[in-house]
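I'm stuck. Protein, please.
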Amino acid sequence: MWTGSFRVLQTAAAAAVLAWALASCASPAAQQVSADGGGAQPAVAWWYDLELDPVDGEVRGIPVGEFDPGWAAASGLGEEELALHVAPAGLAALRDAGLYFVTSQDLDLDGVVEDVFVGTYEAQDGGRGRFLAISRGGRLLRHFVQSGSAGFSALLPVQGGVRWYKCLECGEYELLRWTGGSYVLE
């Protein structure tokens, strides 16, 4: 009789300790105080809320008009820019994930590496978004866009291509690869 009650108390205590441990290990970036002072509430991950201002006339030496004549500005993503908006722990998580903003890889297997990089753009009509570009020797070979947020994205080189992530902790990505005749994003 006593053993059963003790086991229930023991299980409840273990659950309470686990909950306390998880809460105390949560990073300060994972919580925020509500505007009315009502206590901590989960915050949206920084990579979802981050909105960057594309401000440059060229990216990696390539004029914005070569990407798209309708673009007013673009900026390549980099750790320096993110450091202005993201806590050091967020940048460390990015490094720990093995993600990059620029990578070099011989995607088309011709013996010459291509540079693959990501950035943000703003069109002349005010539309914004992200892009992934492939260049070689400072010449733009191809680029892909995702309209909407001018926010975070990063790259992960893998066998046979490069993954394009738009979030840090989700498993969703698009794969950039060479088909034998062109670069595709799937």
